[in-house]
From TrEMBL:
Pathway: Carbohydrate degradation; glycolysis; pyruvate from D-glyceraldehyde 3-phosphate: step 2/5
Domain of life: Bacteria
Record note on quaternary structure: Monomer.
Ligand binding (ATP): 210, 298, 329, 355-358
GO molecular function: kinase activity
Protein known as: Phosphoglycerate kinase
Entry EC no(s): 2.7.2.3
Similarity section: Belongs to the phosphoglycerate kinase family.
Cellular compartments annotated: Cytoplasm
Catalytic activity from the UniProt record: (2R)-3-phosphoglycerate + ATP = (2R)-3-phospho-glyceroyl phosphate + ADP
Major place of residence: cytoplasm
Residues holding substrate: 24-26, 41, 64-67, 123, 160
SUPFAM superfamilies: Phosphoglycerate kinase
Amino acid sequence: MSIRNLDDLLAEGVSGRRVLVRADLNVPLDKETGSITDDGRIRAVLPTLTALRDAGAAVVVCSHLGRPKGAPDPKYSLAPVAARLGELLGADVAFATDTVGEAARKAVEGLGDGQVALLENLRFNPGETSKDEAERGAFADQLAAFAEAYVDDAFGAVHRKHASVYDVPARLPHFAGRLVLREVEVLARLRHEPDRPYVVVLGGSKVSDKLAVIEALLPTVDKLLIGGGMCFTFLRAQGHEVGKSLLEEEMVETCRELLARGEGRIVLPVDVVAATEFSADAAHDTVPVNAIPADRLGLDIGPRTVAEFAEAVGTARTVFWNGPMGVFELAPFAAGTRGVAEAITTVKGFTVVGGGDSAAAVRALGLDESSFGHISTGGGASLEYLEGKALPGIVALEQ
Ligand code: 3PG
Ligand code: MG
């Protein structure tokens, strides 16, 4: 792999130089208060920022937050992120109230050696996500003008062909940051040479979102354990009635084919927690999968399933987990996700948690992050990597 990384840049010397760092500071915010509910992605970029500061660079950080529509939207301002970043760095972060305008120019020009500025949300500009190369290029020109070198540490966004991810590196000497480097090393090991048995645990609500990764993983995994909302379409394909549970009718045939192709390597729940409605107060019972009542919906995997999944991961030497096993945000339906996550923490082999959401679940459930081998900051990005797709942000660093 011909990617230059942060150490190569540091070896060149960065003192007195301006370095643009693309980070993924797309953190979850509380809907009511707007405060940051999980700062994992901010903490994940600190090693790169600290190394640059210590080496005397003037550091210009940029990121997206949420999906604003190419114009400023206060709901998606990075201002609270700038404050939290400053706390974590123990240093002032100059926050620019625009991305490439007057405020940004002032913030960048005012930076001394070892200081940090954060630009406002990249996606407040239509050029960031534009499909039109010229429009993206014009925005990339403006960003690139702020610095003499570019570092990509936004692993969660490397699967996006966006100006700050794909077009800026074509305009500046470019380097992978510490986080991107580590993520790619870990996922490459999973894709090319996992220690066996290799067990993958997949959850989440939709089969259609995970279809490509299931197809890509099927030839390489020893076991693929499926929970979460998407298990019901598989259970339906096995002939079970699933009541009011989440069901993608048009995917049932596909699931049937996958089960046949998997030749027993795809493992489905044997029991589920079935509730009267989608609510923490709903009446609920554990039922075997062949007895889901017609007027109930499954919101978690049951304890027998947790035990079976735990046994399967217990023998593994490599585990990759993406997606919750149930509606863990509601206390009565959190036991499945907690049980499987806890089982993964006891695995002797190498364990990887894939995804912004699964990573947030680990922290929300109060599990010890250090008991996992690696917690990825990218959901979509890690899945697309394991699918074998070329990721625009990585391709751009290779060129
Ligand atoms: C994510 O949260 O998955 C990344 O930050 C990418 O965000 P996006 O899906 O809006 O491009
Ligand atoms: Mg996402």
